[in-house]
Amino acid sequence: MDQIRISKKEGRSIAYYVFMGCLMAAFTAIITVCMSIIKSRKEEAQDMEKIMNTIYAYLAESTEEEYNEIAEKIRQDLVLGKYYAKNKLEYLDYIPNTANDCVAEEHGSPMLLDLNTGAAYQLDFSEEEEQDGLSVSWGYDEISETGIQIVADFAQKSKRAEIDSKRGIVSVQRMKTLFCDDCICEILEINENTPLPELILFSGEMGKFYPVVNGGDYRFGGCQVEILYQESGCYELTAVS
């Protein structure tokens, strides 16, 4: 069998060309990736410029009478459009958290929490509440225009909450003054697309949040909680200890 002999000089030349070929291939791949990133950044910059031009156009044409309508349109078309819808939780980082203490960490009993006001409605009975008869308490959330009436029956060890929500909205800015960021992220994920985003159930014993939805049936330690939607348009929450 014939053998092909390669001199050292030829071997070095072949190795050199192989090395240069690999180097050029790697360089080409890097250039391709960089160009793709540059193109993507350019498109993002163009989108941002379009958004800002739209805002400028709205503001330039607005009058005092049209301000509220235009502000709402900007909010719906731009803020709550594709950017916020896809990256909602990312926007939380831009709002500073000023809460001294997290409302959720202050309670061990099962609670109904109002996310706009920080009001906590205890669902079970404490030892200090050993008495007879009924008691009635109220709460109101002006942001979502939600009224809450709670009737406690000490003989039956039950509490019934009637919830009447007019707007069904939650203010992240207010939450940033009441809850820690970890709880806010968890709450917003749990309450996504729920009819009562301004309210949530919290079990301090289990350290978990639960949505207030029709048909909800939860057990927190010795407290059974059921939620039903009434024909009157209100939600009724019943807690039995």
Question: How would you characterize the overall build of this protein?
Answer:
The protein has five helices and ten strands; from the N terminus they run αααβββββααβββββ. It is α+β, with helices and mostly antiparallel strands. The protein folds into two domains: 9-68; 103-240, no CATH class. 36% of the residues lie in helices and 24% in strands. The longest helix has 54 residues, at 8-61. Helix 1 runs antiparallel to helix 2. The strands form two sheets. Strands 3-4-5-10-9-8 form a six-stranded antiparallel β-sheet, with no helix packed on it.
Mean pLDDT: 79
Number of strands: 10
Uncertain segments of ≥5 residues (pLDDT<50)? 81-85
Indicate the percent of residues in helices.
25-40%
Strand content: 15-25%
Number of spatially distinct domains: 2
The helix/strand series, from N terminus to C terminus, equals HHHEEEEEHHEEEEE
Largest sheet, spatial ordering of strands? 3-4-5-10-9-8
The secondary structure category is alpha+beta
The total count of helices amounts to 5
Transmembrane segments: 14-38
Keywords: Membrane, Transmembrane, Transmembrane helix
